[in-house]
Design goal:
Keywords: 2Fe-2S, 4Fe-4S, FAD, Flavoprotein, Heme, Iron, Iron-sulfur, Metal-binding, Nitrate assimilation, Oxidoreductase. Its cofactor is [4Fe-4S] cluster; siroheme; [2Fe-2S] cluster; FAD. This protein is α/β, with parallel strands linked by helices. The chain is built from 27 helices and 36 strands. A five-stranded parallel β-sheet has the order 3-2-1-7-19, with helices on one face. The protein has a five-stranded parallel β-sheet with strand order 9-16-10-11-12, with helices on one face. Strands 21-22-25-24-23 form a five-stranded antiparallel β-sheet, sandwiched between helices. Strand 4 and strand 5 form a beta hairpin. Helix 21 runs parallel beside helix 22. The structure holds flavin-adenine dinucleotide, nicotinamide-adenine-dinucleotide (NAD), iron/sulfur cluster (SF4) and FE2/S2 (inorganic) cluster. Nicotinamide-adenine-dinucleotide binds next to helix 5, strand 11 and strand 21.
């Protein structure tokens, strides 16, 4: 029997999910062609917010890579747009003059960002936030410009604003209403959200109507209807979306706001269907993936000729993806004369809950600050549960039962993918799954926004009991492989692999070159496993590490020489001052790690600056020990009983240069007043009466974490020995790019302590560390001594005679 010809227009989340569902039902039944205007394979659009916020990379958000299309015999045309459909002849035509005949046609053309129809929107520097190109544009602008304005304080606008702040821009959010996320939150939650985001650095202009984008060819600012103006170098429009339906209109497929479909996603043209944001079902056009995936499932069954339930619409729930802010909303959110509420507000903890009830049934909910209950409430809303059922469930939790344990099997765990507790438990039990990644592979739970990952982990724990270990979760190191960090390291050791390319080829990477996530990680793992023989692959490193200086937004570099323990002397200061004068360094800044940062150095001047300074590199750019901050201690301070500076200097001299999974910061304070801030460092030492306390896993950055007490010892030698062992244990067991604050939580402080407490372990860890340290030299000196490095990286810089 000849295969049915399926054409999908739109290589996005909804359409491709529908194809996946079809392939699950009838794997060898179709000849599939997919057209996508974007030049990429299908990717997770939702995670663009996380890319902008620096939590993931574009390489890592691919949902189905090129191989997937090939393996499933799908003909994919990317960067190609369908321009016309002849529904009588059943043929589609593309902008590359291609004609493809279909038996069944799926339209999944998604949406376009809504661009306000005001003067000046065509100026350079105005963008929507919809695809990879928009995301890259914003990242590029953040390198050149300072001020961003985001129009629209909805989900998209706030996620974009958070990303732009993370990229170092100043951000104004302009919103039409007086309340942020006015479509998803009540006024109380909205005000709490505003306060929280203001604390993160966002500036809000509420109740503002933008009238014009001002500037010449490039945007310079915005003018509002009240006459006020603000400055902006980048304007992001996030005021909603409009279904992408021009193709349907041109091809005479009936539309209203979207392409009109019935409960089986059929248009009224034979063999033509629509799913996703371009479709209008019972008068509703959806803009979140959960309903689109439900639609895809219904349509897949229809095309496969299987009797299935109709699509009857979806109760929407949303969650904002901004770190440090938990907001959830579902169903009806506005109170009326017919509604009653269960409301609670905890000012101290910053939590708010408002559950809306009508005729004794739960119809909507808004949560702020603590959203753990979100999915449970969504299930109650979906089935219009009686409020007494909710109150009973709450009592169970108060009695100590875990949230997932008390959930009924039909409760949704993953809202995006419609996966219930029962589905996941069944998959865990029948297929022996032990990790969140495996559950994701089998059930799709956590495959979209990732907001349900912790619930999936809880469910694994509750189903497997002691057999489940949170610290043993296997995540592939990137989308080029299914192997986890542990698998890869075990294979490197067992097969004696020595190059990144060799690892990729022997371990069956799906890409021959790897990606920006796995290349630096493999380079680190190979060096860690075999420090004496491995030759560091410079090209696998991030740009700052390749050039041994931090690139700045204007393309110049910053140079930070080492100042052990934050201690300096007139000779060093004189040299820095002379170099700053000679190379016109525009800014000298004392860093938080107690040394001096020279900003604005041109790339070609870097080697000359290093030569003139003749000081070791401070590795301010590296995944390695950065600084050991010290307090003045017993030398001068009247409270100090120990020599914090000498200990800090000794630690810095011992550990400098060797690579770690992520940057590593230390501090030594000579008394509990803690002037060197030892409590927020990767490893911090605090002097107490006749002893030193060692704290670990602290972090003073975005995710603030107080360090935990690892142990208390008597002498500085013991501190050095324990620190060496701890440092090496982190090197050997952490995932590349995992800060110690995350590592400590993943491994568990007790298990780390058990390793470090063992004397033999400490000796062996320090021996392996010493081995790794033995082959390292100062990278600035190394560059100055190599004509090839100077030529390749710094464009044949002439270094003054006599400095090599
Ligand atoms: C930054 C961001 C964050 C988001 N976060 C969330 C979230 O947390 N949770 C959530 O549920 N939703 C979120 N969304 C919304 C979610 O991404 C969309 O609902 C979903 O991607 C829509 O899927 P779709 O397949 O209908 O459309 P799309 O994913 O837009 O795919 C449509 C594709 O069709 C292509 N196309 C259009 N016309 C043609 C043509 N004529 N020929 C060929 N190709 C064509 C387009 O180029 C596009 O690639 C977010 C969206 C964005 C932009
Ligand atoms: N976390 C998530 O679930 C998430 C994240 C990002 C995007 N999305 C989806 O992407 C789509 C687009 O998101 P969105 O936030 O643009 O849409 P939206 O419709 O949810 O919000 C747009 C906001 O812009 C405001 N607005 C309208 N006109 C304005 C004007 N002239 N000036 C200032 N503000 C104005 C509206 O009041 C509204 O709150 C939606 O479907 C959304 O659900 C979801
Ligand atoms: S931490 Fe204690 S010893 Fe060190 S400077 Fe502060 S007060 Fe003095
Ligand atoms: S809730 Fe979004 S992936 Fe599960």
């Amino acid at each position: 029997m000849s295969k049915q010809k399926i054409v999908l227009i739109g290589n996005g989340m909804a359409g491709v999910r529908c194809i996946e569902e079809m392939l699950k039902i009838q794997p060898n039944h179709f000849e599939i062609t997919i057209f996508g205007s974007e030049p990429h394979p299908n990717y997770n659009r939702i995670l663009l917010s996380k890319v902008l916020q620096g939590d993931t990379t574009i390489d890592d958000i691919t949902l189905n890579d090129w191989n997937w299309y090939e393996e499933n015999g799908i003909q994919l045309y990317t960067g190609e747009t369908v321009t016309h459909i002849d529904t009588a002849k059943q043929v589609v035509y593309s902008d590359k003059d291609r004609e493809v005949r279909y038996d069944q046609l799926i339209l999944a053309t998604g949406s376009l960002p809504f661009i306000l129809p005001i003067p000046g929107v065509d100026k350079e520097g105005v963008t929507g936030f919809r695809d990879i190109q928009d995301c890259e544009k914003m990242m590029e602008y953040s390198n050149k410009y300072k001020k961003a304005a985001v129009i629209g304080g909805g989900l998209l606008g706030l996620e974009a604003a958070r990303g732009l702040l993370d990229l170092g821009m100043e951000v104004d959010v302009i919103h039409l209403s007086d309340y942020l996320m006015d479509r998803q939150l009540d006024s109380a939650a909205s005000k709490l959200l505003q306060k929280e985001l203001e604390g993160q650095g966002m500036n809000f202009l509420l109740g503002k109507n933008t009238q014009e984008v001002i500037g010449n060819t490039h945007v310079e600012g915005l003018r509002f209807s009240d006459g006020e103006e603000i400055k902006a170098d980048l304007v992001v429009m996030a005021v909603g979306i409009k279904p992408h339906i021009q193709l349907a209109i041109d091809s005479e497929i009936p539309v209203n706001r979207g392409i009109i479909v019935n409960d089986y996603m059929e248009t009224n043209i034979p063999n033509v269907y629509a799913v996703g944001e371009c479709a209008e079902h019972r008068g509703v056009v959806y803009g979140l993936v959960a309903p689109l995936y439900e639609q895809g499932k219904v349509l897949a069954k229809r095309i496969c000729g299987i009797e299935g339930d109709p699509y009857e619409g979806t109760v929407l729930s949303t969650q904002l993806k901004v770190s440090g802010v938990d907001v959830f909303s579902a169903g009806e959110i506005f109170e009326s004369e017919q509604t009653k509420t269960i409301k609670s507000f905890n000012d101290w903890e910053g939590t708010y809950k408002n559950i809306l009830i009508q005729d004794g049934k739960i119809i909507g909910a808004v949560l702020f600050g603590d959203t753990k209950e979100g999915n449970k409430l969504l299930s109650f809303i979906n089935k219009r549960a009686d409020v007494t059922e909710y109150l009973e469930a709450e009592k169970g939790e108060e009695a100590g039962a875990s949230l997932v344990a008390t959930m009924p099997n039909e409760e949704i765990i993953c809202g995006c993918n419609g996966v219930t507790k029962g589905d996941i438990v069944q998959a865990i039990e029948s297929q022996g799954l032990t990790s969140v990644e495996e559950v994701k592979g089998c059930t799709s739970a956590s495959r979209s926004c990732g907001g349900c990952k912790s619930l999936v982990a809880d469910l694994l724990e509750c189903t497997l009991g002691d057999a489940f270990s949170k610290s043993n979760q296997k995540e592939p190191i990137c989308s080029c492989t299914t192997l986890s960090r542990d698998d890869v390291i075990a294979e490197i050791r067992e097969k004696n692999l020595t190059h990144t390319r060799e690892v990729m080829s022997v371990l069956g990477w799906t890409t021959s070159e790897g990606c920006s996530k796995c290349r630096p990680a493999l380079n680190y793992y190979l060096g860690m496993v075999n420090p004496l023989e491995y030759k560091d692959e410079r090209e696998s490193r991030y740009v700052n590490e390749r050039l041994h200086a931090n690139i700045q937004k204007d393309g110049t570099f910053s140079v930070v020489p080492r100042m052990y323990g934050g201690v300096t002397n007139p000779d060093q200061l004189r040299k820095i001052a002379d170099v700053a004068d000679k190379y016109n360094v525009p800014l000298l800044k004392v860093t938080g790690g107690q040394r001096i940062d020279m900003f604005g150095v041109k790339k070609e001047d870097l080697p000359k600056v290093w030569a003139d300074l003749d000081m070791p590199s401070g590795y301010a750019y590296g995944k390695t020990l950065r600084t050991v901050k010290t307090c003045v201690g017993e030398s001068f301070c009247r409270f100090g009983t120990q020599d914090s500076m000498s200990l800090g200097i000794a630690l810095e001299k011992k550990l400098e240069r060797v690579g770690t999974p992520h940057k590593f910061k230390m501090a030594v304070s000579a008394c509990p007043r803690n002037c060197a801030e030892s409590g927020i460092k990767d490893l911090g030492v605090v002097g107490v009466d006749g002893a030193w306390e060692i704290y670990v896993g602290g972090n003073g950055g975005t995710h603030l974490r107080a360090a935990d007490l690892l142990c208390k010892v008597k002498t500085s030698d013991e501190v050095i020995e324990i620190t060496g062992a701890y440092f090496q244990y982190y090197r050997e067991t952490a995932v590349y790019l995992e800060r110690t604050s995350v590592w400590v939580e993943r491994m568990g402080l007790d298990s780390i302590r058990a390793v470090i407490e063992d004397k033999q372990n400490r000796i062996e860890l320090n021996q392996r560390l010493d081995e790794a340290l033995s082959v390292l030299q100062d990278p600035w000196k190394e560059a100055l001594n190599s004509d090839r490095i100077l030529k390749d990286l710094y464009q044949s810089v002439k270094v003054p005679a006599g400095v090599k």
